[in-house]
Design a protein that fits this description.
The longest helix has 29 residues, at 97-125. It contains 8 helices and 7 strands. The relative contact order is 0.14. It has helices at residues 13-24, 36-46, 63-74, 97-125, 147-167, 185-192, 195-203, 213-224; strands spanning 4-8, 28-33, 50-54, 79-82, 129-134, 172-179, 235-238. It is of the alpha/beta class. It has a single domain (4-182, 212-238), classed as NAD(P)-binding Rossmann-like Domain (Rossmann fold, 3-Layer(aba) Sandwich), CATH 3.40.50.720. 46% of the residues lie in helices and 15% in strands. This is SDR family oxidoreductase.
């Protein structure tokens, strides 16, 4: 029986790259996001193993219904990838309370809420499951002007370890991927507009180049596979050595 996966923010960038790897491995992949057009275009490229669900995960009240719909339709949920997230680049003193809370809502609370509902479904089915959270270099070392994002990703890594300890005895492995600087439209725009930051990124990445979204996709596919059946609670940097670079 084919596995059922949910990837949030699966319509573009790293989320789409993970979805591409999953469908190639014959995993039925449900990509969730707010932008219907973006999801539709992604699904066109991904083929019959892909399904889309339009949902604003910051509206926490709709999450239980979303998971119920998926579980009723497919009878199981095997994999959840909490990839959806937003960033805010601003001087520390200019970040408002509302902006800080919005980042935490999107990047942490929504991921927790969705994980909780998916875990309930996994436990109902009494089958092993796998959850992957997505972190960032912002939680590996200090980055300026992204205080809210940094706080959210540090929380994600702590949640990964706590979830792994509590859920692994029940057959649900929980791991985290910390992407380095990956060549996506969003990162390209950010780095090209800030030559000093780009130079800093490249100088501390031992492999000397930006990663590809597919590199994250490969890591996610590995962590969800039987080849990783004894791996839980890890934060895996996929970063060309950036997190340990000098």
């Amino acid at each position: 029986m084919k596995k059922i996966a949910i990837i949030t923010g699966g319509g573009s960038g790293i989320g789409l790259a993970m979805a591409e790897k999953f469908v190639t491995a014959s995993i039925h992949t449900i990509i969730v996001g707010r932008d219907k057009q973006k999801l539709f275009e992604a699904a066109q490229s991904l083929g019959s193993y892909c399904e889309i669900m339009v949902c604003d995960l910051t509206d926490l009240s709709v999450i239980p219904e979303l998971v119920d719909d998926i579980f009723r339709k497919h009878g199981r949920i095997d994999i959840l990838v909490n990839n959806a997230g937003i960033n805010l680049k601003k001087e520390f003193t200019e970040v408002s309370d509302a902006e800080f809370q919005q980042i935490l809502l999107t990047n942490v609370t929504a991921a927790f809420s969705l994980s909780r509902e998916v875990v309930k479904a996994m436990l109902t089915n009494n089958k092993p499951g796998c959850i992957i959270n997505i972190s960032s270099m912002a939680s590996q070392y200090g980055l300026p002007k992204v205080i809210a994002y940094t706080a959210s990703k540090a929380a994600i890594e702590g949640m990964t370890r706590a979830m792994a300890v509590e859920l692994s005895p029940q057959g649900i492995r929980v791991n985290c991927i910390a992407p380095g600087f990956i060549a996506t439209n969003m990162s390209a725009k950010a780095l090209n507009n800030d030559p000093e930051r780009k130079q800093k990124v490249m100088s501390r990445t031992p492999m000397g180049y930006l990663g590809n979204p597919a590199d994250i996709g490969d890591a996610a596919l590995f962590l969800t596979s039987d080849a990783a059946q004894y791996i839980t609670g890890v934060v895996l940097p996929v970063d060309g050595g950036n997190s340990i670079g000098f």
